[in-house]
Amino acid sequence: MNKMELRYAKLRAKMKELGLDAIYINSPENHLYMTDFDNPDGWAFVTLEKAWVWADMRYYEAAKAEVTSLCEVCLPGKPSFEEIASEYGLKTIGYEDRRLTCSSFASLENALKNCKVEFAPVGGLFTDLRTVKTDDEVENIEAAQRIAEAAFDHIVKTITYDMTETEVAAELEYFMKRHGSEKPSFDTIAVSGSASSRPHGVPRPVKLEKGFLTMDYGALVKGYHSDMTRTVVIGKADEEMKKLYNTVLRAQVAAIEAVTDGAKNADMDRIAREIIDGAGYAGLFSHGLGHGVGLEIHESPNLNGRMGDAVLHPGEIVTVEPGIYIEGKYGCRIEDMVLVTPGGSRDLTNCPKELIEI
Predict the structure, then answer these.
(1) By C-alpha distance, which of 41, 43, 34 is closest to 4?
(2) CA angle in degrees (0–180, nearest 5) for 259-273-246
(3) Distances from the Cα of 341 to the Cαs of 192, 314, 347, in angstroms?
(4) Measured between alpha carbons, how far is residue 114 from residues 93, 159, 290 in Å?
(5) Which end of the chain is more exposed for a tag (fewer CB within 10 A), N or C?
(6) Distance CA 337, CA 30 (A)
(7) Which residues of 55-89 are buried (b: 16+ CB within 10 A; e: fewer)?
């Protein structure tokens, strides 16, 4: 059974469990996951017996060439939802309630108004299916990460005091694009000096400030994201900056060492937070420790104190990204991606962590 056959087998087993005759798929990530074709404006329809992909003329030729053989590629309306519902006797149709707009749902209802069907939200069904990564998914994420690492090696050799934050971000993105990234994994963060205290700060068109420069960015390969953060120093680090940086690093290393299958998701967050709090920075680690990465930059599972008794499973990929942020002064974050393996874990990020002064 190949990867797509396995995905459909798992999806249809879940559909039977939920009492669904069909699922309407509209989100770009799940469309790609179930069709092997990236079309942000396409949609798919899966029954227990068959699957269809609709693509308009902008994407139709590409869809016919790239969509998995498990799906029939169609132009919009050929066949119609009503024709499919009648032919296959559909009664209950699932939809992505977390991603479908009200207007699009109304259109779906209208397209089936002459059929006696009910609609059922599927909630986190696809999130659950996508949490554990297959070998080919891990390979894509690692390929994206290698590009991001090469970009870091490039940028630390390229930065000058005359560069702006926006120029640093642009240089990272340009390098990654030139070396195989489809596009940035997300809006690149490059914030310096006083702005580095903002965990998701927006790069400014101002020259780099002396002090910490935090760069949070990633590449995209075959729809799969990478995510890493490195903090360097523009100029020289004083003793307090070194203490802060090394505290973040100790917290990150300790949390990574605790990642293993069966470990509670909340425990890694607790381990990192106790180190940071114990070093005199209580309350300055202002976000959860990490999140899943895959077809979306933020997906399940999460590493934070609200995860209760949830545990990690082999095949899950999580970020480990503790940080310390002193408002109006500076901040620091270090982030790796980690693959959970049977009895342990493997750090997917091969990039220097020692304090770099530029």
Answers:
(1) 34
(2) 90
(3) 36, 5, 10
(4) 14, 63, 47
(5) N
(6) 22
(7) beeebbeebeeebbebbebbeeeebebbebbeeee
Q: Determine contact, residues 120/92, Cβ cutoff 8 Å.
A: yes
Place of tokens 């919009």: 76
Contact 312, 263 (CB under 8 A): yes
Tokens 């996951």 appear where? 33
- Tell me how far apart the alpha carbons of residues 126 and 335 are, in angstroms, rounded to a whole number: 26
Helix, strand, coil shares of the chain, percent, nearest 5, are: 40, 25, 40
Task: List pLDDT tens digits, range 300-355.
Answer: 999 999 988 999 999 999 999 999 999 999 999 999 999 999 999 999 999 999 99
**33: CB partners within 8 A, 6+ apart:** 7, 126, 129, 130, 295
Domains of the chain are 3-130 (3.40.350.10), 132-347 (3.90.230.10)
Give me the sign of the Cα torsion angle 27, 28, 32, 38: positive
- Report whether pLDDT(168) > 90: yes
> What is the pLDDT at residue 77?
84
